[in-house]
Design brief:
The structure holds two protein chains of two kinds. In chain A, strands 1-2 form a two-stranded antiparallel ribbon. By secondary structure, chain A is mainly alpha-helical. The N and C termini of chain A lie far apart (50 Å). Chain A has twelve helices and two strands; from the N terminus they run αααααααααααββα. Chain B has a domain of 220 residues. A two-stranded antiparallel sheet of chain B has the order 1-2. In chain B, strands 3-4 form a two-stranded antiparallel sheet. In chain B, strands 5-6 form a two-stranded antiparallel ribbon. In chain B, strand 3 and strand 4 form a beta hairpin. Chain B is mostly helical. Chain B is globular. Chain B is 69% helix and 6% strand. Classes of the chains: A mainly alpha, B mainly alpha. Chains A and B meet through helix 3, helix 4, helix 5 and helix 12 of A and helix 3, helix 4, strand 2 and helix 14 of B.
């Protein structure tokens, strides 16, 4: 299909921006959660919790706003996906609830059984959130049964295939890597040393997953790479991705705060590159129908009216700069290594 | 159990549970701004002690508001997909605006409010408190705008037919400022302020009765009381305006509020009663004759459109709307009475000696909780059978691809998880109350370092 820079395309990109922002930010929250049980000791676990403590809630808002934006700009997609993937979304919701209250409640009582239970809840829910989101992305890549009525015609189990599970695991691996790098930035001393040891494994785990997913996509879902075939310039994104990933161990090895920040920045670039590759392969579809491609939900047949897209764009143009400005300021206030004080989790 | 009744039950459960928390956050948020403002002005360390304690309570309600709120955003899509297709332009826009203008603001600055005491200057911290409070109220704005559009749709046109019909925006501001948005917003906010105020007074009264944290408790009670007096009286105005609006825009709902059946006669205002829906009459009722006609038309003899003049298919269940509405009003009046009584006692210097009154306030935390829920039940059940008034029926708005067993699964899980969360909320709240406020800190004469 033609790429026309119209409102529908702009909104495809904007939703990509919101979800990429989510992945860069809540990605490390989920990664820290996934790593949590590997860290032993109450004080050490509190350090991990407080590295994300002030910012995780704001990070999660990117998901909420992304969901709201999909509802507003592409209501047919919102309706089909959320109702079609019903059980998966319910599981995701329960995990999001447990992640939130796990963080909030964990240190509120001194009992060991209390803290260990919430540690488990926090960690398992973080792992499952990352995994489930990956499975959802996997299903967007493979396509799902969607009928002429725009309704999902499959089952919950049909969403779980070797490919979608692989994408789920890859997402988990990506966030674990991202979380480990974030923790390297935010911690010091023995805790940091332990985490640096994990980071290497996390990078290797992710690279193996990434290569496997890429191979599987090329072999089984080559439709995703047609835009790359037609516009070889896009290949640069894949190269940038690989350079970013390669830069991570290089920066981590240098072992100083600026290098740690560059390592985190490289990880963010990698996430951006991955989301871009995914978006390019998907465009202009949102949900591909395995029944008949003419039933695909696209940026055109699943969108709200032009008037709404325009109004929403104005809202976004007004709102997002403010959001970025105060989000960056708030991160700046909490810069530096984690310090536990009387207000901490 | 079919998928419709299960989905309705699930939505009722999830929204009712969610609605315990944001009003508390909104109410406490206003109180926090007042307390921290007074601290900055007077430098009296008790006000900082108060702010720090109530921030901790605030953070607890906020976390639960977020956890249960994401459920709501997803639930429009999971269980009410046909509704979502129909109103995506309108409702989706309001929700997205809520995300961009409210959620980012409150969740972002929450970081500094809760964790940033030692990292920013007192002025920057106060600014953050204001931003969190503002964010919470902006959130109320957009969701009430969205819900009000469901009650009194405006600024739209219907495009397409039958299964493909959907609402598109023709006038964004007309949609935002639809006929009921403003009055419902101020009514909702006032109810939220009452929720926070009565929670503060409840905990403060408890400490006063136990003779603990005296200065902290008395000041906290006074802040709560100030808000409660204003908000409870303001509710008379906002409630009246909302009811006027309902009489104009949703006459069936108004008729249901008072179970008024006969269009040719003036309408009585019941204090209480039981609606016999088969016989179309109110039994065991005590009413002020013709008072509803007076309130709406300023004329005791003005006829009010009665339930009999509407098609039965388009009417809500009458008794439950009648009961929830009356319970809300009764509690609203009780809150005015209690607040004024406390204010008068305070003026006479007797308030903190009146153990019986303080004891009432300990339990009165439940009053706004129940009133807020009853109000929403009345409004939402009163809108039935419509999900969008006169445009889309609730029974036509379900997700077509979802089956009953899936909803039964999620409903059971929500019930269990929310029961657990509520228990934990009460437990942690109780522990915080037992622990009490931390000791007052010495006031630092210079602004603290920003690092």
């Amino acid at each position: 299909m033609e790429f026309v820079f119209d409102l529908n395309t702009i909104w495809f990109i904007l939703i990509g921006v919101l979800l990429t922002g989510y992945a860069m930010l809540d990605g490390f929250d989920l990664g820290v959660g996934a790593l949590h049980l590997f860290m032993k000791g109450d004080n050490n676990r509190r350090v991990l919790l407080n590295s994300i403590g002030p910012v995780w809630d704001g990070n999660e808002v990117w998901l909420v706003t992304g969901g709201g934006a999909i509802f507003a700009a592409f209501p047919e997609v919102y309706a089909t996906v959320f109702s079609g993937f019903y059980t998966a979304f319910m599981l995701l919701l329960f995990m999001l609830i447990f992640r939130a209250v796990g963080i909030e409640f964990r240190s509120k009582q001194p009992m060991e059984w209390w803290r260990k239970s919430w540690d488990v809840a926090f960690s398992i829910s973080s792992i499952l959130i990352a995994f489930l989101m990956g499975v959802a992305v996997g299903n967007i890549i493979t396509g799902v049964p969607v009928g002429a009525d725009k309704e999902f015609a499959g089952t919950f189990m049909s969403l779980i295939t070797p490919f979608t599970v692989l994408v789920g695991i890859t997402t988990l691996a990506l966030f674990m890597m991202h979380g480990a790098i974030y923790l390297t930035m935010k911690t010091e001393g023995e805790v940091q040393k332990t985490i640096k040891g994990w980071t290497t494994n996390a990078i290797i785990f992710f690279v193996i997953c990434y290569v496997s997913v890429t191979m599987a996509t090329l072999i089984y879902y080559p439709g995703m790479v047609i835009p790359f075939k037609e516009h070889p310039a896009f290949f640069i994104i894949a190269i940038v991705n690989m350079l970013a990933i390669a830069n991570i161990p290089r920066e981590m090895h240098a072992g100083n705060p600026s290098a740690d920040r560059r390592a985190f920045f490289s990880s963010c670039i990698s996430i951006l590159a991955l989301m871009s590759i995914f978006a390019i392969g998907l465009f202009p579809n949102f949900v591909k129908s395995t029944i008949d491609p003419s039933y695909n939900l696209t940026i055109y047949n699943a969108a709200s009216s032009q008037g709404t897209l325009q109004t929403m764009l104005i809202i976004a143009i007004i709102g997002i700069p403010f959001v970025l400005a105060y989000t960056i300021s708030i991160y700046w206030v909490f810069r530096g290594k984690v310090k536990i004080d009387s207000t901490s989790y | 159990m079919d998928v419709e009744i299960l989905s309705r039950l699930q939505f009722a459960l999830t929204i009712s549970f969610h609605y315990i928390y944001p009003p508390l956050s909104i109410g406490l948020g206003v109180a926090l701004v007042i307390m921290e403002g007074i601290y900055l002005k007077t430098k009296n360390p008790v006000w900082q002690q108060m702010t720090k304690f109530w921030v901790k309570i605030f953070a607890l309600t906020f976390a639960l508001g977020v956890a249960t709120g994401i459920v709501m955003e997803f639930e429009f899509g999971t269980n009410w997909a046909t509704y979502s297709r129909y109103v995506g332009d309108v409702f989706g826009s309001a929700l997205a605006a809520e995300g961009i203008f409210a959620f980012f603001l409150e969740s972002g600055f929450l970081a500094i409010l809760v964790f940033g005491w030692n990292r920013v200057s007192p002025k920057v911290h106060f600014f953050s408190t204001i931003m969190v409070s503002l964010g919470s109220m902006m959130s109320a704005v957009w969701i009430v705008v969205a819900n009000s559009w469901m009650q009194t749709p405006a600024g739209y046109q219907i495009v397409g037919e039958g299964m493909n019909a959907r609402a598109e925006i023709t006038d964004f501001w007309g949609m935002v400022f639809n006929p009921s948005s403003v009055e419902r917003l101020i009514h909702t906010l006032s109810g939220a302020w009452l929720a926070g105020a009565f929670l503060m007074m409840s905990i403060a009264a408890f400490y006063i009765l136990k003779n603990k944290h005296s200065e902290f408790a008395k000041n906290s009670f006074k802040v709560g009381l100030g808000i409660a007096v204003f908000a409870s009286l303001f509710q008379l105005y906002t409630g009246h305006r909302s009811a006027l609006g309902v009489s104009r825009n949703q006459p069936e709902k108004l008729a249901a509020f008072e179970a008024h059946y006969d269009s040719s006669s003036a309408a009585d205002m019941y204090l209480f009663g039981w609606v016999n829906e088969n016989k179309r009459e109110v039994n065991f009722g005590v009413a002020i004759p013709k008072f509803l006609s007076f309130l709406i038309y300023y004329d005791f003899n003005a006829p009010v459109k009665g339930l009999k003049s509407f098609d039965e298919k388009n009417l809500p269940p009458i008794n439950i709307v009648f009961q929830t509405y009356h319970l809300m009003v009764a509690i609203g009046m009780a809150m005015i009475g209690l607040s004024l009584l406390a204010l008068f006692s305070l003026y006479r210097g007797r308030l903190f000696q009146r153990g019986w009154l303080l004891k009432i306030f300990v339990f009165a935390v439940m009053l706004p909780q129940i009133a807020n829920q009853m109000g929403w039940f009345s409004a939402e059940i009163g809108r039935q059978p419509w999900i969008v008034y006169n445009l889309l029926r609730t029974s036509d708005a379900l997700s077509k691809s979802v089956e009953a067993n899936q909803v039964l699964f999620s409903l059971i899980l929500f019930t269990c998880i929310y029961a657990l969360l509520f228990t934990l909320f009460i437990f942690l709240l109780n522990e915080k109350i037992k622990h009490g406020p931390d000791a007052t800190e010495p006031v630092i004469s210079q602004e603290s370092d920003a690092s």
